[in-house]
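Review this:
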Amino acid sequence: MSKWTAATVAQISKGTLYGDSEIEVCGCILDSRQAQGGEMFFALPGERVDGHEFMDTAWKNGAALVIGEKGYFQQRTQKPYAPEGKALLLVDSGLEALQELARVWRLELGAKVVGVTGSNGKTTTKDMITAVLSQNFSVYRNKENHNNELGLPLTILNAPQGTEILVLEMGMRGLGEIKALCKIGKPDIGVITNIGTTHLELLLTQDRIAQAKWELIEALPAEGVAILNAEDETSVQKSSRDSHRALFYGADEGIIHPDIQGSRLTPKGALGTEFVVSFLEQKADAYLPLPGKHNVLDALAALAVGTVFNIPLADGCVGLRELEMSKMRLELRPGIYETTLINDVYNANPVSMQASLRILKERASGNKTLAILGEMYELGTSAVSGHREVGQTLARLGISALITVGNLAKDIAHGARLAGYPENQIFMTATREAAVRITRDLLAADGAGAWVLIKGSRGMKMEEITVQLERSEKRMD
């Protein structure tokens, strides 16, 4: 963001200002440790900690302005104050102030906004869109998982002056949440990767999930463009009843013929994929440093966004080749006993887990394969069937060994059994530590050259398993 003064921030958020009203601010943080100089620190109350307790730390670390809530001081004898050369702004709601400031800065910035959501692949797609658009534009995107009511406005406020396109991933857990994010971000283009079963626990039905995701398309202006998956039946059906211009992408013929199509998908190297992409009269050879058709679909979505901004396919493909992914997604790491680890632990649902299993089998090229699979959350009434589907896919692929982690993941093992998977290749564990012990024993006995997939929902912290199985010069295995 450009430099606002504390007085400007106070005027926008309708708060009460203490201290230096002319001090300039640039950017914002929610963690006092991240202050580098000149930021706004939002002292938000949380479930475990209260940001107000870190106001002094934020100022000391370099923050120029602390934004706190009036209620915090009303409950205490401490009077509001700000150190010399600093400022304190008190508002009714820190969250509402954060969101209102983001709305204003989004308009001042004047950038185009690409909103991205979907049941699978939205973070990967966001990264790919950024890579494609960065060939011709100055682009800013969410970092990590900053895709909610806090992270999205934080992203907007940290977008620097001169940003031409904002790429905003939008997460949701219920109806109305994407709509609320769109009121802040005001997207010009909406990308829906697919409409699956994630969040059934909260939304209960597939129709409600579709309704929640489609809030992104409904929020677009009349001239806005919807980028949709031609292989996703729900997206195709909803688009037929929507007035916005739609561009469809796909690697197969799909429900309808895609406008942007990928073909001749070919594995290349350890985790790469080559394919041919076509759009109208354009055709280009593409290389993606990621495996699997699902990642190619995300790449096609990114290239589709590029066409809206008149980026030639060939230029967009250069961006894909240079792709920088968010952490913990299909990372290839050297493992103990000369093994190869696929660290895919950012999150998991039945679709993404089955896709990762196919990648494991494909890239192992006949070597032994082990799958360490944790619980998948937010599946609601589909929790049992979703886990069992994964197990059945694992059995059909002929994965060499299955190690499950957690109580819900037992249904992965049960699904494998139902599909005829041998009992002596199944190992169920309750903890990450137990999974590591069993995996090490299996690899020590006959693991040279094996490929190991580690995957589970974010809350399972499966990356801790990866760390224990990585090859290290300090570790003698």
Notes: Residues 25 and 38 are 5 Å apart (CA to CA). The mean pLDDT is 93. The two ends are 50 Å apart (CA to CA).
